[in-house]
Amino acid sequence: MHGVGRIAPGFDSPRVSAIVLEMREELAKLLALQLAAICVRNTCIEDIHAGRAPQSETGDGSDVMVVTPTSEIPWNEVSRISDAEMRMFMKEVVNKIYTVLLRYDDPAFVERLTEQAHEFTRKWDEPENLQQWFTGKWNPSGPGETLV
Question: Does residue 15 lie within any of the structural domains?
Answer without folding.
Answer: no
